[in-house]
Amino acid sequence: MQIVDLILxxxxxxxxxxxxxxxxxxxxxxxxxxxxxxxFYMVFAVGIRSGGENFVSFLLCGLASWKWFASTLNQAAxxxxxxxxxxxxxxxxxxxxxLIPAVVNFVKFQVILLLLLLFLWAGDTPVSLNWFxxxxxxLVELVFILACSLLIAALVPFVMDLRILITNGLTMMMFLxxxxxSVKDFPEDVQVYFYLNPxxxxxxxxRAVLLDGVVPDWHALGLVLFCSILAGLVGCWxxxxxxxxxxxxxx
Length: 251
Fold this sequence. Notes:
Elements: H1 2-20, H2 28-47, H3 55-77, H4 79-82, H5 84-87, H6 99-122, H7 134-155, H8 162-175, H9 188-194, H10 198-210, H11 218-241, H12 246-249
Helix pairs in contact: 1-6, 2-3, 3-6, 3-7, 3-8, 3-10, 7-10, 7-11
C-alpha cells in the first residue's frame, strides 16, 4: 500500500510541477497534443490529401491513442536514469519509477479523450451505447503501456543506447501502426506483419468502437493483453532481480 501511495504522490507532484512550470499551466495538456495532431492533419489531409471525408475523425482516434503510448514510453525509458542521484542516496524500489510517468500520462490522456469524444459528438459520428466498449480497450492499452514501461525502464540503465533506439523505433512504429491508413487496405499476407505491432489492434479497436459503433475484436485485444501481462512480469522480475544493482551501474 505504501508503494501505491508513493506512486500516486509522485504522479500528483509531477502534474503539479507541469502546471506550475508554464504560464499556460494545465492548458498545455490540451495544446501540445492538439498541435501534434494539427501538424499531421495538415500534412496528410491538406497536403497529401489522403483519406476520405471522415479522415479527421479517423486520424484523431489513431493519434490520441498513439500519443498516450509514445509519451509514456519516452518518459519511462529515462525514469530510472533521471533519478540516478536520488537512487544513489536513498533506497527506492525501482519498480515504482516507470509507473509514475504511466500514471501522469494516463491522467493527461483522459483530458484528450474527453475532447475527442466531444469532437465526435459534435460532428457527424453517431453516439452509441457501444462507446462503453471503449473502457476495456483503454484497459488493454493501459496494461500494454505499463508492461512496455516496466520492461524498457529495467533495461535502459544497463544499455544506455537503448534510449536512442527507442526514440527512433517509436518514430518508425508510429508510421506502421495504421494511424494514417487502414491496415485492411493491404493484402492479407501483408496484414499479418502489421499485426505484429500491438498498437495496430489497439488503434483499430478505438476506431471500431468510436467511429463504427461496433464491438472491438476481442481475440486481437485478448492476445495483446496476454502478451502484455507476460512482458510486464518479465519487466517486474528484472527490476526486482537487479534492484540493488542500478545505483552501481549508473555511477
